[in-house]
Design goal:
The chain is mainly alpha-helical. The protein has two domains: about 10-100, no CATH class; about 110-165, Arc Repressor Mutant, subunit A (Orthogonal Bundle), CATH 1.10.10. It is built from eight helices and three strands; from the N terminus they run αβααββααααα. Strands 1-2-3 form a three-stranded antiparallel sheet, with helices on both faces. The protein is elongated, with a radius of gyration of 19 Å.
């Protein structure tokens, strides 16, 4: 299952409608520091490249290769591999007995939590948010903690980014 990872390749696959190789992702995002470790680890174990396919916003299927794939994969080949990934995900859905109503389900965020998130996304500090919304600072922190739990994130920056990704805030 596609977890909430910080791997740029996973983020790219989950946010994209197209399948992309690690090589293409590296060229596009140019990750540095800790964001490079999944790639460096895979290189150490002989995995030179991978094609990642996000299927149904729930499954992430990766095809591993000892060769650079972006030089080899044609568009028809990518379509066939994406179709195969879709069939694999369909079979995994059958095996896991997952509730299909889960797909597309959004967190139920209150209007006040959304207002706090909007202000967080603009870079406001907790005391500034409290002043603008006429709330106590502890109330703002409480709204942030609740929304972080609902979105499944660890901090306020991640909450704002996830809210933007889910089109909850512009």
């Amino acid at each position: 299952m596609a977890m909430q990872e910080h791997d740029p390749g996973v983020m790219m696959a989950k946010a994209s409608l197209m399948s992309s190789t690690w090589t293409e992702t590296m060229k596009l995002l140019e990750p540095i520091g800790i964001d490079r470790w999944p790639y460096e680890l895979s290189l150490r174990y002989g995995m030179r490249d991978a094609l990642t396919c996000s299927v149904g916003r729930r499954w992430l299927v990766a095809y591993w290769s000892p060769k650079v794939l972006c030089d080899v994969l044609t568009q028809p080949m990518r379509i066939i591999l994406l179709a195969a990934a879709s069939f694999a995900a369909l079979r995994l859905e059958q095996l896991t007995h997952h509730d299909p109503r889960w797909l597309g389900k959004r967190a139920r965020i209150t209007a006040r939590e959304l207002a706090v998130l909007r202000l967080v996304s603009t870079g406001r500090r907790t005391d500034e948010i409290a002043k603008v919304l006429d709330l106590g600072e502890e109330t703002v922190r409480s709204h942030l903690k609740k929304v972080q739990g609902k979105l499944g994130v660890r901090n306020r920056a991640q909450a704002a980014a996830e809210a933007v990704r889910q089109h909850l805030i512009p």
